[in-house]
Design brief:
10% strand, globular, mainly alpha, three-stranded antiparallel sheet
Length: 123
């Protein structure tokens, strides 16, 4: 691991800062789906399967306030709004790419482990 610079108040390390930005079940997926191109709300809702409207809106607002996502309102009728990554958001998406690759490479094993865990819990 590379040596960490002295930490800012409120963070124990760089990973702590990153995790605070991506905290929330859906934020990494939102960032992932915005990496290729801007998306309208409905496109994101379909891409991020299982997220409720309330939570998606909340997490988009948090990502916007953290400087990761920009919301563009085209002030048209019917309303048209899209979301895209800022430069900071693109750099975060680049940092998440190795995690995505790891998941793709180990998806079968992870699915097996979670299936075993579910059997154990139902026990």
């Amino acid at each position: 691991m590379s040596e960490e610079p002295s930490c800012m108040p409120g963070f124990s390390c760089g990973l702590d800062a990153t995790l605070k930005v991506i905290a929330g079940k859906w934020k990494p997926l939102i960032i992932y789906f915005l990496l290729e191109a801007p998306n309208r709300y409905g496109e994101l809702k379909r891409a991020v399967r299982g997220v409720s409207d309330k939570v998606l809106i909340q997490q988009l607002k948090e990502l916007e306030s953290d400087g990761i996502v920009v919301r563009t309102d085209y002030r048209e009728v019917p309303p048209r709004v899209d979301y895209s990554l800022t430069a900071l958001g693109r750099s975060l998406a680049d940092a998440l790419a190795p995690l995505s690759n790891w998941g793709a490479e180990h998806m079968e094993e992870v699915a097996r482990v979670f299936a075993e865990r579910d059997k154990w819990r139902r026990g």
